[in-house]
Specification:
α2 links the parallel β4 and β5. The chain has two domains: 261 residues, Alpha-Beta Complex (Spore Coat Polysaccharide Biosynthesis Protein SpsA, Chain A); 95 residues, Hexapeptide repeat proteins (UDP N-Acetylglucosamine Acyltransferase, domain 1, 3 Solenoid). By secondary structure, the protein is an alpha/beta fold. The protein has nine helices and 30 strands.
Length: 381
């Protein structure tokens, strides 16, 4: 396959209030995952594994610092080569152009033309999966349809209100689509993952048409609008999680303690790449007690950790206990402190003897950089 067979677009302009305070100063895409990864690593790895050499990303204003900090030059995802490029654009820049509709989509159209790719793939950032885009492209070409959308059968409670659910025939023909909030279902539903493949020139024509008719919007909304009888549906059968609130984010991380789910996501035929950090291994002292947990590098563990995921550079001091929790990088948990069913954002310090307790249904979130000096039981800090 030519390396420029496909170009890629990635959108991260939606805000999900139910993820606050975790997304206060970062986009959903750069939320830490499984101790050492970020959610964006999975889309970037899908793109790298498909030999896609150009990528256009859109993020909200004020949220790009963590994106650039994580991506750097893009080396880990093969985006730093002579022929490889990635671009980051600010969604609010599009909004500012609303008074001059003639040029609203120019930057996207210019990117698509210069990519010289026959096909374009669009991906959102809240669907967590390890997807072979080359396989999707092959099925798309065989189908002869105008567009292909990737879907996954999931439980209704795993959907977000604005998700698109598909009604399919036995031949994977799309009969209907509806918003999740408008569908009452007790069985499995067909979730559109907002991953699309379409001919690049067709997408350019679509944007030019919208621009000529003074229609403002974004690529994702237009592709969602195009879902119909001339759209092929590709079923993804691997591990997938739909992240839109604190509970779904917590559950996705806790899933990685299940060996079957972990292997399905991390050890399929495709590798997952992340930013390389040359750090010392995690140290476990003689007083440490660890069961069914994962640790990134650079941690110091002298206390008890069970059914938890611990980020880089975290210290769990002797006598401290962590259960069923997600600890993001560079936290410190002092002696005799107890953490249960909680998410500690980066750089949190928990004083000696303090209790932080949520529940599996409502994990307690401690904001980034907080110094916790008294007990927190339920709610958010």
């Amino acid at each position: 396959m030519k390396t420029n067979k496909m170009c890629a677009l990635m959108g991260n302009f939606h805000r999900y209030d139910a993820l606050l305070p975790l997304t206060e100063n970062r986009p959903l895409a750069t939320l830490p995952f499984d101790s050492k990864y970020r959610l964006i690593d999975f889309n970037l790895s899908n793109i790298a594994n498909a030999n896609i050499r150009t990528l256009f990303m859109v993020f909200n204003e004020g949220e790009t610092r963590s994106v650039f900090d994580h991506l750097g030059g893009g080396k880990e995802w093969n985006l730093d080569g002579i022929q490889n490029r990635f671009f980051v654009h600010i969604y609010q820049d599009f909004i500012r152009k609303e008074d001059n509709n003639k040029h609203y989509y120019d930057i996207v159209i210019d990117y698509l033309r210069k990519s010289k790719s026959e096909y374009a793939v669009y991906m959102g950032t809240r669907i967590l999966c390890n997807l072979d885009l080359r396989a999707v492209l092959n099925i798309h070409q065989i189908s002869g349809k105008e567009m292909t959308v990737v879907y996954k059968k999931i439980k209704p409670e795993k959907t977000y209100q604005d998700d698109i659910l598909l009604t399919l025939s036995d031949e994977h023909t799309i009969l209907d689509k509806t918003f999740a909030k408008d569908m009452n279902a007790s069985d499995l539903v067909n979730l559109s993952t907002d991953i699309f493949i379409i001919k690049t020139q067709r997408l350019i024509d679509l944007l030019l048409e919208k621009q000529a008719n003074d229609v403002m919007g974004n690529v994702e909304s237009f592709l969602r609008e195009k879902i119909g009888s001339d759209t092929n549906a590709f079923e993804y059968t691997g591990y997938l999680n739909n992240i839109f609130d604190v509970k779904s984010y917590y559950d996705a991380n806790m899933d990685m303690l299940d060996g079957k789910k972990f292997n399905s996501l991390m050890y399929s035929q495709q590798k997952i790449y992340t930013k390389i950090k040359n750090e010392v291994p995690t140290f476990y002292s003689d007083t440490s007690i660890v069961n069914n947990s994962q640790f990134a590098t650079g941690c110091m563990v002298s206390g008890r950790v069970e059914r938890s995921l611990i980020g880089r550079g975290t210290t769990v001091n002797e006598g401290a206990e962590v259960f069923d929790s997600l600890i993001l990088p560079s936290c410190r948990i002092d002696p005799s402190a107890t953490i249960r069913c909680a998410i500690l954002d980066k750089n949190v310090i928990v004083d000696e003897g303090v209790r932080i307790e949520g529940t599996a249904e409502s994990p307690l979130v401690v904001k980034k950089g907080q110094h916790v000096t008294k007990d927190l039981i339920g709610g958010r800090a």
